[in-house]
Design a protein that fits this description.
This protein is an alpha/beta fold and about 450 residues long. It is built from 16 helices and 10 strands. Strand 2, helix 3 and strand 3 form a beta-alpha-beta unit.
Length: about 450
């Protein structure tokens, strides 16, 4: 059985418009919304977890790779989504969580992490060894050959793990790999004045040359049958209050260079908040894997805030869930997940906690008090009817679907549909039938 992502590359070689969104989220409601939309169109989905979220020590999700797989599969079972249509991915797999350790220890942990992902059946592996480790010189830039050597070591470990998996499951699908890293720290840039630079074509080709050299040293030339993408910076980014939109003229040299390598595509990180037309242009230009993360929980938070506003109009004060206030208190109580990202006056920081594009509330949505407030919010709406004129005010897109009998007037369904609005931007970008048909409607 062939990896579906290889099919995507082969379609592009045939001149067929093809790409895939990479949904990087561990939130239950978000994943459920993504799967339900994919189920409507009999589609497959790519869901990824980062090395900081999920690793052998638990990560901030307190999950191992196997735990995360089971977590995603449980959501699929709940809504009767075919698990064979799920592609699990590991993002930034490498020493990112252990940068303070020396190379020996950091790479030991990294080898264990990639092995666990492959043995758990993850079919897309992003090998990211671009960061300096504790034993690296702080005064010199990291040599591309060092980056590639470490990547080759991890690839070799993945191959060993896949052979172990094949013994248990002869039908196992070989994973595909993404190399390189041309992105700021996960979650968006911190500096609004930061100068965004499109990857230099020479740097892209030097990445390929370095990896080819190191892979060849280890007798891993066959690896190029499974390396399908290189991460680049195509000129898209977001910060607290700004979005850098894709400009295909600025990335033309980079994307023209890709044409020399028909067996690979680019993977674009931080594509959150791009207009659907810009996402489509990215896919047309070779940035065929478009990753989205914070925008998903931003959409979830936005919908929950809208419900909270309506709650204050429709529910007695003594029964309010106060979701907005509970979430903010949880964030203030444990500031470690946002304090390096939000700057300015107390007022500016307070607004960023609520509304920043660099959404950090995702780290707090599983806190017991926040989950309880969310459940109470949904329960409150089980007991009241939302007037259509009020729904029009706070959730205008959902109002249209409710009005037309296409969406149930149910709080949880309204929230999921708000997330679906974003998912559809990505479907429009990667699917030819969305572009030429009337499916995509704003």
């Amino acid at each position: 059985m062939k990896n579906l992502l290889i099919d995507m590359v082969e379609k592009r070689k045939m001149g067929i418009h093809s790409g895939i969104p990479s949904f990087c989220s561990a939130n239950k409601i978000v994943i459920e919304a993504i799967m339900e939309q994919s189920k409507r169109f009999d589609d497959y989905v790519l869901i990824e977890a980062t090395s900081n979220q999920v690793n052998q020590f638990g990560g901030y999700m307190s999950m191992t790779p196997e735990d995360f797989k089971n977590y995603v599969y449980e959501i699929a079972d709940k809504i009767s989504f075919d698990k064979d249509k799920i592609i699990l991915g590991g993002d930034h797999l490498g020493p990112q969580p252990w940068q303070d350790l020396d190379e020996k220890e950091a790479m030991k942990n990294s080898k264990k992490l990639v092995s666990l992902c492959v043995e758990s059946g993850y079919m897309k592996i992003h090998l990211d060894t671009s960061m300096k480790l504790g034993s690296d010189s702080k005064d010199k830039a990291l040599d591309p050959l060092v980056v590639a050597r470490r990547g080759a070591i991890l690839y070799e470990e993945c191959e060993k793990a896949f052979q172990k998996l094949k013994k248990k499951n002869p039908e196992a699908v070989h994973p595909v790999f993404v190399i390189g890293s041309e992105v700021p720290i996960p979650g968006g840039s911190q500096d609004e004045e930061e100068q965004l630079k499109v990857t230099d074509p020479k740097d892209f080709e030097n990445t390929l040359l370095a990896y080819k050299k190191e892979f060849s040293k280890r007798g891993l030339d066959d690896a190029w049958n499974y390396i399908i993408a290189v991460v680049v910076q195509p000129g898209v980014e977001f910060g607290n209050a700004e979005i850098h939109q894709y400009n295909r003229l600025e990335s033309k040299k980079l994307c023209d260079c890709l044409k020399k390598y028909p067996d690979i595509v680019f993977e674009g990180h931080s594509t959150d908040y791009q207009p659907p037309e810009k996402l489509r242009e990215m896919v047309e230009d070779g940035i065929a894997i478009i990753k989205v993360g914070p925008a998903l929980t931003f959409a979830l938070r936005e919908a929950l805030f809208s419900l909270s506003m309506m709650e204050k109009e429709l529910v007695k004060k003594e029964k309010w869930a106060n979701f907005i206030e509970v979430l903010d208190e949880a964030m203030k109580k444990e500031p470690k997940n946002w304090e390096k990202h939000y700057h300015g006056t107390d007022k500016q920081i307070a607004l960023a906690r609520k509304y920043s594009f660099s959404d950090r509330c995702r780290y707090y949505l599983t806190k017991p008090e926040v989950e309880l407030a969310m459940k109470k919010l949904f329960a409150n709406f089980d007991e009241v009817n939302i007037p259509l004129h009020m729904l029009h005010q706070y959730m205008p897109n959902q109002y249209i679907k409710v009005r037309d009998g296409k969406l149930e007037l149910n709080a949880r369904e309204l929230v999921k549909d708000h997330i679906v609005n974003l998912v559809e931007d990505y479907n429009y970008a990667v699917k030819h039938n969305y572009i030429v048909s009337g499916i995509f409607v704003r």
